[in-house]
Amino acid sequence: MIRKVAIIVSSFLMVLGLVILSWGFRDLPIDERPEWMAWQMVLWPVIVLGLAEVSRLVGYVKKGLSVRADRFKIITHGLPALVVAMAPAGTFTNLFGPQSLWSLLDFPTAKVMAAVWLAFTLWTAWEVDTP
């Protein structure tokens, strides 16, 4: 139970960290980005981090160990990261107002960091079960 609470808290802290780090870029203009750019921003880190992780996971399977996905971690970390990375520019500003800290999640820096967060979550959510 404590582990699940820690994962939930760390997910919230990751979103808060995106807001805090984006604070320094708040005066830059936000341009709308094309849809292909959003997908590229998400897929690139997933693929790059996956290149290293797949070989590690395949090695475990070859040794006779079973590998399973930690769905709780994927949902609590992956879903918020996906929402931040893929939300159109201005979504958080419209939802929470322009003076809200959450509006900083509309900045490109937060979106790039969320894409990397998503990739890291997807590849570190694999658990090795020992026999």
UniProtKB/TrEMBL annotation:
Membrane-crossing segments per the record: 5-25, 37-58, 79-97
Q: Does the keyword Transmembrane helix apply?
A: yes
What keywords would UniProt list here? Membrane, Transmembrane, Transmembrane helix
Q: Does the keyword Membrane apply?
A: yes
Q: What is this protein called?
A: Uncharacterized protein
